[in-house]
């Protein structure tokens, strides 16, 4: 048993995150036609998870999205997907009055974690998960916490100073991100997962009441026909080198992988945190291993949300 992770409060620059801005008179309706999330009625002060799927219902990218103006939405996603995602979205703008831009160079993306953040920033921080606080210095989004530690995504102009907080080790932030069990699509996992395979609907990333978007029929069929045979779970691992896209094998089946790593992070003194999509049948007996049936074993730990209904925290 490892001791409770203590993070009193700190800030780190998130160089693995980037930003797209979609703006123009048709920005909201255009995004509503492309993403898994309801965007047309986006309320101010509220962020939402959203996915961008191929026609086959496989996730090409995942976003934290929120309105920054009446006619503009900011999409925060993995930096290694910015160029391809911006290009693909732009291809489908057609006659819509909107523009898709990579605005990462204009802003600094930071992660804040711990109780001291609220002491320093006070009412400039939101108080509810997925709430957004906006002011002249940028935006702060409250993300789902992990290990009892509050987390915030902070977007500030590139010229702004960091908040007066101690430096937070990038590894601590990454480990907490994985332990929150909110998945993030990166280059190594593009087109690998239907949203439900990585619990995306459980963490609020899919709206099943909205209109059409690429891959919607596949996503809806997975939801309502009860045919889903794969899900995402949280694991510990003794390997310090787990990476997204790495295959997972069952001890009794060397011929085909039983799953794939979605996100992972190592933290000195603790097991690596691993989010992995696996066959449900592979959990019934035996053990799961990284890379091969005799690779380093994975130890399943509890998810921070139930599997049967959307998570609210």
In a few lines, what is going on in this structure?
With 313 residues, the chain is mainly beta.
Characterization of the model:
The strands form 3 sheets. The protein has a 6-stranded antiparallel beta sheet with strand order 15-12-13-14-11-16. Strands 1-7-10-9-8 form a 5-stranded antiparallel beta sheet. A 5-stranded antiparallel beta sheet has the order 3-4-5-2-6. It has helices at residues 27-32, 82-91, 116-121, 170-179, 216-224; strands at residues 10-13, 17-23, 47-53, 59-69, 72-78, 99-102, 107-113, 132-135, 138-146, 149-157, 230-237, 247-250, 259-267, 270-279, 288-290, 298-301. It is globular. 13% of the residues lie in helices and 34% in strands. The mean pLDDT is 93. The protein is mainly beta and 313 residues long. The chain contains 5 helices and 16 strands.
Helical residue percent band: 10-25%
CATH topology of the largest domain: Gyrase A, domain 2
Major β-sheet strand ordering: 15-12-13-14-11-16
CATH structural architecture of the largest domain: 2-Layer Sandwich
Order of helices and strands: EEHEEEHEEHEEEHHEEEEEE
Quote the beta fraction.
25-35%
Counting DSSP H or I runs of 4 or more residues, the number of helices is 5
- CATH domain class name of the largest domain: Alpha Beta
Structural class determined from secondary elements: mainly beta
**Largest sheet entry:** 6 strands, antiparallel
The coarse overall form would be: globular
What labels would you give this structure?
mainly beta, 313 residues, Elongation Factor Tu (Ef-tu), domain 3, six-stranded antiparallel beta sheet, Gyrase A, domain 2, 2 domains
